[in-house]
Design goal:
70% helix; globular; mainly alpha; Serine Threonine Protein Phosphatase 5, Tetratricopeptide repeat
Length: 212
């Protein structure tokens, strides 16, 4: 029920933004902020969990990535079809084929930093945490687009999804320190820092009381 309510709230917020004539990059950034808010709720409140103590695996729950990815790489990039198909497989729980799809994609287009980031994200989902192959994928993306904040942002997000909030915040703070004040991705990064800087809830708060 928690996820259903969350989805309805996001849909209502998106509709309100559209009625307010928010368009283009601003709408994308706003939607990404909503996604990060949902991610924060997932990290802090665990809406999909039953009344039981939280465990380490719950901290690595799937976080929607598409809206954040669109902030850095746009909605209509040449890689979008590959990314959308992989993310759909991930959402359905088929993480193995999501990884295989993007491995095929980077073999065909090895110069695409966007696809290497997608592969890193898929590997994190498949392994439920950051692994050496995922780190190599993010590193390859960084090598292909030196200085661009996309690869370090998603590497930081992978660290956060693996339970290392402090390292993620440190990476994102460096992104802000080296980015223009009017960069369209700044609200997303700032919200991510604010979300992950909050202390994690105690187990009884995250999963609810086990008493009846």
């Amino acid at each position: 029920m928690g996820w259903l309510v969350l989805a309805v709230l996001i849909a209502l917020s998106a509709g309100s933004l559209w009625l307010m004539k928010v368009r283009g990059g601003l709408l994308t950034a706003a939607m990404a902020a909503l996604v990060f808010g949902a991610a924060g709720y997932a990290f802090q409140g665990k809406p999909g969990l039953p009344d039981a103590p939280a465990d380490a695996a719950a901290e690595r729950a799937y976080v929607p990535l598409a809206a954040a990815r669109h902030v850095f790489y746009g909605n209509f990039s040449p890689e979008e079809s590959w990314m959308s198909m992989s993310e759909a497989l991930e959402r359905s729980g088929d993480t193995e084929n999501a990884v295989g799809l993007l491995q095929n994609a980077v073999n065909r287009y090895p110069g695409s930093a966007h696809l290497w980031i997608g592969l890193g994200n898929a590997l994190v989902d498949h392994a439920h945490g950051l692994t050496p192959p995922a780190e190599m994928a993010y590193q390859r993306a960084a090598e292909l687009s030196p200085g661009y904040p996309g690869p370090p942002f998603f590497y930081g997000l992978a660290m956060a999804r693996s339970g290392d909030r402090a390292s993620a915040v440190a990476i994102w703070q460096r992104i802000l320190a080296n980015s223009p004040k009017d960069a369209n991705f700044r609200p997303l990064v700032e919200l991510g820092i604010a979300t992950l800087s909050q202390p994690p809830p105690a187990p009884e708060q995250a999963g609810g009381s086990t008493r009846r």
